[in-house]
## 1
Amino acid sequence: MSLSNFFSKDLVNMSLKSKNKEGIIKELSELLFKDKRINNKDSFIKDVLKREEELSTALEDGIAIPHAKSSSVIKPSVAIGISKEGMDYGAMDGKPTKIFFLIATPENANDLHIKTLSKLTSKLLDEDFKKGLLNAKNEKEIFDLMNDNSKEEESTIPSSTGKFLIGVTGCPVGVAHTYLAESSLKKTAKEMGIGIKVETNGSVGVENIPTEEEIKKADAIIVACDKQVDLDRFSGKKVIITGTKEAIDSPKSLIERSLKDDVPVYSSKGNRNENLSNSSKEKVGLYKYLMNGVSFMIPFVVIGGILIALSLAIGGKPTPAGLQIPEGSYWNKILEVGAVGFKLMIPILAGYIAYAIGDRPALAPGMIGGWIANEGSFYGAKAGTGFIGAIIAGFIVGYIVKWIKSWKFPKALQPLVPIMIIPILGSLIIAFLFIFVIGAPISSLMASLVTLLQSLSSGSLVVLGLVIGLMQGFDMGGPFGKVAFMFSVGLIANGQTQFMGAQACAIPVAPLGMGLATLIGSKTKLFTKEERANGKAALAMGLVGISEGAIPFAASDPLAIIPANMIGSAVACILGFLFGIRDSVAHGGPIVVLLGAINKPALALLAMAIGSVVTAFISIGLKKYFNRRRKQKAALA
């Protein structure tokens, strides 16, 4: 694809006036907006600045490459700015930055777009190219420089010294740093006479993967990544693990260090943290493993929740047994598809937590463990453990697999270890633990909770509302919420609809509260772009009484979100009892009000709204508190 699709003479500013990072980005964004490359300048600028917070895009030698994937981008583009005097952009070498490449990438950009834009940034490593930009007299000269493809990179750099390295690069966005690190390593290795092949883990996928033969002959492996990649294939080789920034800024010292005798040999059987450089250790831990599972789970939550919400909202009919969709109808099929999404989200969460810890051999047993955890019938419980059980199963499986990988297997069995022996052993162990060890206490706890609710049902409504609300908000459709729900449903047949009425007010609080929190906190940087998108989906789910919409938030930050959900749900439930709300169907949320199943619709909506606001503000407050604590700990570390 021609570069003219991404760049034009109208996207050049040869005399930038701003003296700070935000000002530079605004000036270049203005070019993109005027050229109709972006449709919302303010939104795009926010996305670029957020990317800057994750990892500075300032390189050495006076270059910066601010960039972002954004829904505001109409077509992939590059804007170039030159500051003759330069400004402090935060470069590691302390020198002023003079050349700025602002890369705008659509969220749905195809592979060819990404590769063209990413390879374009490798030009910045060419000294002649940089000098040409600074000395250009007009926009045409810059345009000609950008379109000069006379220096094409080789996929593998041959060796003249007998030394051969393998590099692996990857950054979170996968647009700029991934390919800059690749080009930097290849350019420097070529100058040193050292052969190298560099695998890139960009947004278009994994490219230039080294073969087993290449890995065997490699003198060392340089993993310059800011995200997780498969390391087990390098077991037995000298491996240096660092970030893309070091590969870009100091490739020569990195290559020289990789060839020294004291480089640790990576072992897939050992503790992975012992094989990491200091720069990567901080990125490894329980939170990273948890977020790996959450990120894979989110699409299933959204698919399941939105499809169920649509089917209930459009095709649902209020009945004593709850909102029902006529059998065989179109919307009943949509409901079933949504149910599949919800059914899969729990094993997906467990499986990818396990995968983050134990790599591919842990994926299957992790998913099986998550499925068993969510199916109470395996261990005699009326309800499974929900997302909390999935998290527990994922971590148990991950560390079990890691332990099994440390065993010494006969050479004849080693090919079967990752694809058969470990998955089977891991699955059997987690199944045994949940069915015979963890399951019995869970089953007993569920029975005790039912007894507790029965004993409270004749007492104070405030106390009962507090307990039901706390249970509903704790696990959002998990065992605690289900026990409370089934208790309330059972009383509908006896004509006691006030219990279901109060819980109907609590059911939507968690998703509505988290959706509201993302809207309120959008300018405070408390929630990521992905979480803000999930917040909109959570709002839709909350409106039709699907509490699972809040699960991704609770799973990613349980200390802040679960207490907020519990308190808000308890407030709504107590108000439901005090307002005398009655619900004749086994469901909750605003949709039940709209369908006429609630006796006091205005008061019911008021209770839901108050509970949601309480959840939103408590979650924001707790997130601020824990973020401040994390920063203080990081500063002391």
Note: The radius of gyration is 28 Å.
## 2
Amino acid sequence: MTDSKHEVLIIGGGIAGLVLALEVADRRRVTLLQPARDEQGASRWAQGGIAAVLSPQDDVEAHVADTLVAGDGLCDEAAVRFTVEQGPAAIGWLLSLGVPFTPDPDPQAGYPYHLTREGGHGARRIIHADDATGRAVVETLMAHVQAHPAITLRTDLTAIGLIGDSAGHCRGARCLDEDGQLHRLLAADTVLATGGASGLYRHTTSPRPASGEGMMMAAELGAELMNLEFQQFHPTCLYDPEGSPFLISEAVRGEGGLLLNAQGERFMPRVDSRAELAPRDVVARAIDAEMQRTGTDHVHLDIRHLGEAAIRHHFPTIHAHCAARGLDIAHMPIPVVPAAHYSCGGVTTNLEGTTTVPRLHAIGEVACTGLHGANRMASNSLLECLAFARSCGRRLRHAPPAGDAPLVAWQSGRRPIPRQEIAALRDEMRRIMSARVAIVRRDAGLDEAASVLADLAARLAPRLPEAAPDVELASLWHALRLARLTVACARARRESRGLHFNPDCPVHGDPSPQPSRIHLGALAGG
């Protein structure tokens, strides 16, 4: 095992991690971990854009109000207002870096860049780079990160756990290199930007979804987790059982896309007055119910009426990707199905990304800031990455010196656990989570999930002390425990709210609902 010392260690190289690195690096040296396997993380696949108040016809109060409605009574209004107010300056900063947002060719437009509209928004406020915003932002930020002399980018290391000391502070991370060798990166300040937990489910909108590894690494040091039961399922993932996951952006519906059932009939108008532009939780449940009613495994998203020129102009990436799979979306509807997409819960933080563990911060999807409440509104996620990464950066630029309490000892064995066994356990976890803890949950199903997951954990736990350090094994162990905590939160919420829908308690409960707060100690045996 090798030891090295670092000032600021950022684990995760998506938009949140890249923004933070650039914010801090003018004052402190930064080490940024972006394993090669994570290059296709969630940020790069974000299509729709970034929500911000940019148009003269829009205002902060309207964006705040729309977010509070989408969050179904569980948003932290202070976090919502803070995030929304940061939007215009954050977009201005990205423009100064050269992000190629799509211009608006209309000389009468009140803003020089095209703004689209997505579900839950009462105005056009989504700035985008065609339909590949995440890729454009990541590539621009990465170019600046690679050119900065105070940022060291490591693509050869994967974090498998955090290092704590006897004072309860975070002191860095344990990592494995590509040869399986252990490295201890000691850091004055550590920041998690590791993404969410959609990988707990079988069908997702990302080819390499995170499985909550960062959340559980924080929980192992005693950090509080919050709102784990609110897992968002994007309503429209391309239905292609033989192909890799591919998201069909919310902006497709924002520009007039219509959802049709197997008979070619619209069904959203009878579900919600906002029809296809209702918030994601409403649309995903409606699609799920329509599939159950008609006995089909997908529905259709139809944009043929927009015309081929408009489709190619607004959605070049989606058009090209579907064409490569034999779908001409200008002349045929797109088969779509809901898929696990975004974790509204995560590591509890304040407005500066501070967790309940000293010297440990969390930003992006791994964090739970209170912005999203019980349901994330479209395109608020990249806005959250920007707002909280910049806020966290301002704090870390002036952080006091770290302590020097003794480090907590950590032991590992040398006996490898076969990869096929790890894969089988992960498949079983994803099966039960998808079957019992997805868009609609019932008490009996949650009880079954709790039992199955506890059994899987009990089969693995006794072997860990002798097991050789392994990235896949660490990921599975983190995922299993997070799945169990997610089920515990879902069982405890005796109401239906936002993304948590349980027909056994179908109505809202407390008119002033509280977030679900939980620690690793809630699990017997940890």
Note: The chain has a mean pLDDT of 94.
## 3
Amino acid sequence: MFRKFLRDIRGDYMIATAIAIVPIMGGLALAIDYAEITRQRTATLNALDAAGIATARRIVEGADEKEAKQYALAFFKANVPGADTSKTKFNVILPTSKQGGGLLTIEAEHPYEPYFLSAFGSLLGAEIGEINFAAKTQIRLKNTLEVALVLDNSGSMDYNGSGSGKKRISLLKDAAKQLVKKLADEAEQMKQVDKPVQFGLVPFAASVNVGSGNAGASWMDTEGRSPIHHENFDWSTMPNDKKVVPAGGVYVKSGDAWNDTEGAIVTRFSMLDEMKRITGQTWESNWEYTCTKYNWWGNCRSYGWVDQGEYKYTYGSYASWQGCVEARPYPYNTNDATPNKSTPATLFVPMFAPDETDLTSGGRASNSYWSDGTSGGSAYRQGFMPKYFTPSSTSSSAGNGEGPNYSCTTKPITPLVDVTTTVGLNKINDAIDNMSPNGGTNVPEGLAWGWRVVSGAAPFSEGRPDTENGNDKVVIVLTDGENTYYTPGSLGHSDDADNKSIYSAYGYTAKSQPGASFTRLFMGTDTGVNKSGYYNDNYTAAMNDHMQQLCDNAKTKGLILMTVSLDLSESKSSEKKAIQALKACASESRFRKDPDNPSKAAKLYWNATGGNLSEKFEEIADELSNLRIVG
């Protein structure tokens, strides 16, 4: 066809070509200019986003209206590559509120000078000049994010998730890492802001592990001053020459038998240091020439060499503190009060599970790991304190979650890290991968430590100051079951020592608190809890009560609480209560309405199954994304 066109000497093709060339060239001009105007508009919008995020941060830092607007314009111009911004109409609308929901709006109307359309318009007798296009971005003032993942590591997380062939803990690890990655990727657009997105991890089961490296931290009860520090120790059982007595708010060694350690403070930490096991023995000979046989009237009959030596023992440590702490006494277990020695109850007490009785007349106790060294009854043998200062004949040390560390089964807390860095992202992902299911379920303690992780004050102070504007502190809680605290009998153990419960984060429920006739688990609870009821369901009710108080206190302080139930059904009464507790705990969305009641905000609660857990975490990521660029 093309060759035929070149050979043709008639005028038809030329006329047709002349007629067609105008719309062809016009279409080409339009395509080129459209592509370029689209590119410039995208570049302008990206520059607006960057300027918005950077300006929001300047507002948080205290910039006034004039400074903020000048900064926004300068940042915008610096981020529009190769564009002439001299004719750009630029407008900044500052947020009217610095609290959640305040919007920073930046608009730009940018002129585009067409490459070909002007010339093409001239051919048609039309004048086509500059074309203006507009772009706008809106930024929530809350442009930085601190998130504590409070994740259930109880034994039931080892079960398969419904609708999936994988274990719940594996599904949770995958979903959590996807959430972190998505928010970390989105934070790439916030490079101008220091630590735009931080994540911390709080694995919880029956207790929470704050890390054994914090044994000497100022917020730990290193001197035994807390009212709960010695509640399981009966120091009256110590001998007269080796006593432990109260002195000046602490307990100290008193008596000649302590030798050069007399006067030293006795704490759970010092007891762990003094608990030794025999790791080896060697015979040390001592030959003496002495009488070997006697006459019946008492005189020596014959002499000889006799080895009067003895075994010399070597000792090793039996157990060191694994890192778990008890719940603070009420009301400090439901708030974020900064630990202070002037208020000893605010300090954190290391867990120390007592050695329970060796007697087995009614069955084995839940945690007997040391020789009682006495012939008294069950309660006396459990409370007999000299045993901890006598080396054990056992040859092995206590493993994780054993002996004094009974009920301490989780990995340590990972404080906030900046997930926009490779180091930070790897650290949080490794911590998630290292989670392992074992133990009971104590959601309120997990939640309390999630709050402390994002807090700007001790015990973990990696978070921004609580008073800083432009920052959201978020706690995401996931559990697959109700709160649990167990009687020994419910787990197949005897309770000869009348502990009323196994030892865990609230200690023994048989221990009444000073000034009260009931255990600290029941302190501060309402009339729905039977303060003399020592059974599992009542323990759960008390924990739910503490949990709701904790949630209310955290939300009052401005925390955003997101809760997730995994494989729980409202058709089961106990699981329904757990669902209700999680839903009541959750904050309300600032962006979404309740689909069942559009007049109310949606609750930040998700009921997930093993099959859709990943999707629910995607929804959580979307909710958190909305806290920054929204338009």
Note: The CA atoms of residues 572 and 578 lie 10 Å apart.
